[in-house]
Write a structure and sequence with these properties.
The structure is a single chain. The chain has 2 domains: 3-59, 434 Repressor (Amino-terminal Domain), CATH 1.10.260.40; 79-112, no CATH class. The chain contains 6 helices and 2 strands. By secondary structure, it is mostly helical. A hairpin with a 2-residue loop joins β1 (90-91) and β2 (94-95). It is elongated, with a radius of gyration of 15 Å. It has helices at 3-14, 18-24, 42-52, 56-59, 79-84, 98-112, and strands at residues 90-91, 94-95. Strands 1-2 form a two-stranded antiparallel sheet.
Length: 113
């Protein structure tokens, strides 16, 4: 499996088309497709891995563990901040739709009032 095929596989599981993934990472629309012939810059690979919530090592097939972070240490995340910064959120293994993200943000904004 190549870097592109592994990235494509994870993106498909997350419900993100590869072109949209590239744009979210601040890359050219077809940049990820070119990774088969050109090695990506490390910062670009990191951006894509962060959006997909996997490690760069997973994308590079250095490990089969999608996320190498320590599972014992739970990191709290402000959900409003995550939604506003377009961090991928999921429920029951499926990405939360834009419609539900807006609803959640509206509900959280009401709490601040």
């Amino acid at each position: 499996m190549t870097l592109v095929s592994r990235t494509k596989e994870v993106a498909k599981k997350r419900g993100i088309p590869l072109k949209k993934l590239a744009l979210k990472a601040g890359l050219a629309e077809n940049a990820i497709y070119r990774w088969d012939t050109n090695n990506p810059k490390s910062e670009n690979l990191e951006k894509v891995a962060d959006i997909l919530n996997v490690s760069t090592d997973y994308l590079l097939e250095r490990t089969d563990d999608m996320n190498l972070s320590n599972t014992d240490s739970k990191t709290e995340m402000d959900i409003k901040d995550a939604l506003e910064h377009d961090i991928m959120l999921a429920f029951d293994g499926k990405p939360i739709s834009e419609k539900y993200k807006r609803i959640i943000l509206e509900l959280l904004s009401e709490e601040d009032d």
